């Protein structure tokens, strides 16, 4: 029997770096297509928690080293992905609920549970080299509830059934057509497109940007509290940022927002 050419834990744990308004979370196991192990789940949760605590961070960029974005969870340890309150789905839910606006840079393959990680992000910028598939039915695994919900919310019921029940592989163009990718560019243009989007988001007014991200997700899930949007709207009406935004618009210059 041949040996696995790369150990299951090849590479390093996911890393977080914060630079001003932007945090970057990097998957660092390229030798195994950035496959996630059980030990990576609390690390990813801790990184998202750190971003939530960093009030100045407006954008979280999720990226990966090597040819592939992520090949999902280690199938040899699948039971560990379902730990109550600390499983794979709980980690992805935390990413979806991240305070900052999230951007996934999808340079290559995104497989299995990693497709849900990408769907949990607000934007998914993909290279023409990207491809995806969901092998749950092929493996005999019933996917977790919040992951099924995200697929239906973002891609629609028919597309969710197509991907979950057939295990079909989609190329980058098809990923864009179904809405999995929000942007599609050539491999050479990926870095520039990602950085341009991140800079655009980081230049927005924090109260409006983060409030609308949160409330749009709540509307999609049907969990919007009564009066929440009105409260957020009134807060922005009284903000320094709205006054600065109006003045900058009038003076035809970039606004200098403070989040107040």
Tell me about this structure.
The chain is an alpha/beta fold. The chain has 11 helices and 9 strands. The protein has helices at residues 40-53, 88-96, 113-119, 136-139, 145-155, 157-166, 172-177, 190-202, 206-221, 228-237, 240-251, and strands spanning 12-19, 22-28, 59-64, 101-106, 109-111, 123-127, 131-133, 170-171, 183-185. The strands form 2 sheets. A 6-stranded mixed sheet has the order 1-2-3-4-6-9, sandwiched between helices. Strands 5-7-8 form a 3-stranded mixed sheet. Strand 2, helix 1 and strand 3 (59-64) form a beta-alpha-beta unit. Helix 1 (40-53) runs parallel beside helix 2 (88-96). The chain is globular.
Defining key terms:
11 helices, alpha/beta, 260 residues, three-stranded mixed beta sheet, six-stranded mixed beta sheet, 9 strands, globular
Give a short summary of the structure.
The chain is an alpha/beta fold.
Question: Can you lay out the helices and strands and say which pair or pack?
Answer:
Layout: E1 12-19, E2 22-28, H1 40-53, E3 59-64, H2 88-96, E4 101-106, E5 109-111, H3 113-119, E6 123-127, E7 131-133, H4 136-139, H5 145-155, H6 157-166, E8 170-171, H7 172-177, E9 183-185, H8 190-202, H9 206-221, H10 228-237, H11 240-251
Parallel strand pairs: 2-3, 3-4, 4-6, 5-7, 6-9
Antiparallel strand pairs: 1-2, 7-8
Helix pairs in contact: 1-2, 2-3, 5-6, 9-10
Total strands: 9
Q: How many helices does DSSP assign? A: 11
Q: Helical proportion?
A: 40-55%
Calculate the mean pLDDT score and round it. 92
The low-confidence runs, each spanning 5 or more residues with pLDDT under 50, are: 1-6
**Largest beta sheet, briefly?**
6 strands, mixed
Task: Report Rg.
Answer: 19 Å
* Span of the ends, CA to CA: 63 Å
| Beta-strand percent range | 15-25%
* Structural class designation: alpha/beta
